[in-house]
Fold these 2 entries.
Entry 1:
Amino acid sequence: HVITCIRGRHAALELALMEGKHQGLSRRLKEGELDLVITACPPADEELKQVKLLNEPFHLLVRSDNPITALGQIEPDLLSMLDLLPLSEDDFPTDMANSTSKAPHCANIPIFRSYGLSIETRVRLVLAHGYACLVPSLTCGELTASGKLALVEIKNMLMGRKIFALWRRSSPYSADLEEFAVDISSLIRQHKR
C-alpha cells in the first residue's frame, strides 16, 4: 500500500527495493551506489541527513503451543525469565547497546545482542527449539500466518526501535529525497490508523 501511494506521488522516481544488513547498506549509501536507506541504525555522520519515519514496537514471538500465549500479554519483567534469543545488530543502533549489557530503551530488562542472527533464523530457532524472541511489529502478521507461531504483547512496554530514512547531504537530489522520506513517514502513519 505505501509503495503504491509513493509511486503515485513521485512518478518520476525510479524505485528499487533492496534488503541487506545495515553496515552494507550504509557503505553503499556513502559510496553513492544507493540514494536512500531505511534503517533502525542511523550512524552519527555529518555527511548524512535523516528523517525519522516511525517508532516500531517489539512483540514476543513464541510457538503457538507455548503456555505464555494463554496470557495474551506478558509483563516486561518476566522477559528475563524466558529463554529469549538475542536481537541482532540491525535491530538497534550500535551505540544504544553492546552485546552483553542492558540497553537504555529496555527499562532495566537485559536484552542481549548478537551479530548475524536474522529474524528468519530466530523464527526457525523458536519453531525448532521452543525459544522466544522479540520481533519488530511490522513483521508480525506474516510470521503468525501459518498458525505455528503466536505473538504475545508486552504489557505497557515502551521498548521498540526507531526507523529512519538516510541520504547523503551532497546528493543532487537531497531536497527530493527529503520530500520522499517525509511522504513515506506520513503514509506509514496513515496506514497504521
Entry 2:
Amino acid sequence: ARSNDPPTAIWALFEKDERLKDRALEERLADEDRQRTAERRAASSVHRERIKRLRIAREDAWLAAITKLRGRYNPERDAIRSRQARQRADLKDRQSRLHIRLLRILDITGTARRKQEAARRLLSARHKAARKKLSVRYRKARTKAEDAVKTRYAAAIERTECERRKERAALMKRHEQMAQHDDAQRQQSEIE
C-alpha cells in the first residue's frame, strides 16, 4: 500500500488479497469448465465414432448387396443384349438381300420400304419392352436389398443415437449442477 493514510493502505491490502482469492477461484472454476467441455466433447466423439462405424458397415453391406445383385442380373442382361443384337443383325441381313433391295428400288408406292420400317419399329419396341421388364425387376430387387440393409442397421444407429442423447442429457444436467455450484462459490466469495 502506497498511501500514507493507514485506513486506505489497509483497505488496499484487503482489496489486493481479495483479488488474489478471486483470481485463484476463477482460475479453478475456468479449469473445471474446460474439463467439463472436454468431457462433453469426448462423450460426443465416442458416440459419433460408433455411428460412423455403423454407417460405414451399412455402406459396405449395401455395396456387397449391390455387387451380389449385379452378379445375378448381369448374365441375364448380357444374354438380352446379345440376343437383341443378333435379332437386329438378322433383320438387317434379311432386309438387305439382293432381291429385297431390288423390290424396294422397283416399289413405286413405297409399300416395301414401309413394311421394312414397320418391322424395324416392331423389333425395336419388343426389344425396349424386354429391357424395361428386366430393368423393372432389377430396380425392385435393388430397392428390396436396400430396404433390407437399411432396416438391419437403422435399429443399431437409432439405439446409439438414443444412448448419445440420454448420456448427453445426464452430462448436461450434472454440468448444470456443477455450474450452479460454481455460481454459489462466486457469490460466497463476494459475500466474504
